[in-house]
Amino acid sequence: MSTQRRSYRYVGPAELKAAVRPGSGGCRISSAAEFAGWIAGRSAAELAEPFTFVIGLDAVLRLAPRRSEHVACAGGDMVLSAGEIGFVREADRWAVGEVSNQSTGYCPDVTSWSEVARALDAVGLGRPSGFTYEVVFRRCPGCRERNVVREDDFVCVFCGSALPKTWNVDPLV
Question: Is the pTM of this model over 0.90?
Fold first, then answer.
């Protein structure tokens, strides 16, 4: 049985997407060996904070420095998820210590966790059972602004309109 995957278009500032250059995407990590090579090149300062990540349409993890734009990490392409991820050393292997869907450029739904889990499992990384920090994104049907819903308060911070309970950030989906 085939299930339809939800993909996310970039919905952030157009000038950030326009700045993306071909071949500028994040480091593609599709195996334990690729992750080992990538992580070995990181400094202690880099490892002290989370990295930018996306899961591409090919279901593969891509990583970039934290202050990188998600759209640049994705090479301007659509994604299956996006956010921030931090790694910790557990005994003799690396694991995910923290992971979120915090990407105001793609605004992925919390349901994108399954794509993140699949990509991390493919690389052999230990991981939590879900996002350690979930961000709920909604687009206001009134003023069309993107919102982060806090404490289950589904009210637009820009105009006061009620926000939908289901994900609706991309107007073309």
Answer: yes
